[in-house]
Request: fold
Amino acid sequence: MANSVPPSRRSAGRTIARNTLFGLGAQFALRVASFVFNILVIRTLGGEAFGQYSIVIAWASLFSVLGDLGINQYLAREIARDPQKTGELFWDTVLLRFILALIASIMTTGGAVLNGYSSEIVLAIAIYTSSYFLQAVLAPLSSILTGNERIDIISAMTVVTQVLFMIFAGLFLLLGLDFVWVVIASVINLPIVIALQYFVIRRNRLGPPRFNINPSLWLSVIRFGLPFGIVQLSLSFAFRIDTILLSSHVSDTQVGWYNAAYNLTLTLLTLSRSFNDAILPTLAREHMLDPQSVRPWYFKSVKIILLIGLPIAVGGMLTADHLTHLLYQPSFAPTAFALAILVWDIPFVMYHSFCGNMTTSIKREGRAARIYGSLGIINTVLNLALIPRFGILGAAFATVLTDVAGAAQFYFLFRREFGAGLDFRRLARIGIGAALMGGLILLLRDWGFVLLVPAAAVFYLVFIWFSGAFSEEERARFVGFAARRLALRPISR
Reply:
């Protein structure tokens, strides 16, 4: 027993930091490239065609959940807790996903026809559904890497996937082809990624196992994966139902304006996505060995989320017009109004996304499923109420209000789970810093976006450092971490 403990108790902090840094580096490079490419796509296609492309992605992504039902997230969690589960579950997961992909593709394309979309949109949706079958192989391979805490490899593969998409889509756009070919570009890169991921997994001796299926497990796999599937479906509604409902009430051009703002918001969520991907397998392992060990991670993470998310929301709201003017044509000016609202979604999404992964790590995914299920209902109701009257601004408000509700529910869940521990006096100082930063932005608006953002960021960080938002111990840890990353010794007093 004593010999088995040390390798199992490798540092959770170091593992999460490594995977977060790899993920953040990959996501940063990916998001910068995707950000630039997205601007190119919007400028090349124009508002109407970009709106049609957004409708295709929203509709197909919403139904793609039926091709998974959460079984891949269940597979990753089980592998993280016991690597031997790879041999027991991998091929059953692949075959289940093929069956679900067939069902999902029929429902996706048939639903698009019944909804009355144009022939071009229906064709593009039908093409996109072919990715369901490719994901039946790719997603379980990714679960092997996730379960073995190789988020660094996952991050690299994500970059490869997006780079291939940008190469193919960029070529099609240069040839003057329409948005349907951009959809094709998002599919033809997947076989290459599958081959690369298979090679990397084999090279690292992580599998995949020999072909072996046990159909008697299929119902239990679906049953255990269903809570994750409910979460995925609810998130898909939260992310996509606004675009689908907008397509029935406003022009395709206005759908394009809204999605230009929404994509900018998603770009700013890079850090939280990397951290959330990193914590899932590591904290699942830690919770199995010592349930109390994950409690401090929750309290520390909430403070970091507020530190990052709140100034982005304040600054993004006050500079939305500058940013859209800098990036898009004058015809996209209405995007700024939606962006000024949507940017407030960032701190709430950062928080409840983190909480969602935390519940998976501590085996409370059933409670998370109920929360996300309620959010799917709330978001749909809000969009149905606000979009017909207020258009894209109504969709923006519905998105933010939904995620406020999600953050509140997760707060009370973890308040019951972990008890008190959030120091609201220190958290309030972060809020004061963000408010003062906002005042500075209003005073210096004439500086222009390029100068204004760095000045506001420096002011905010200096205030946070000296305001007491973080304790002496926490600041010492920051200094030590930065010194190690820079290969420098901390300066002793």
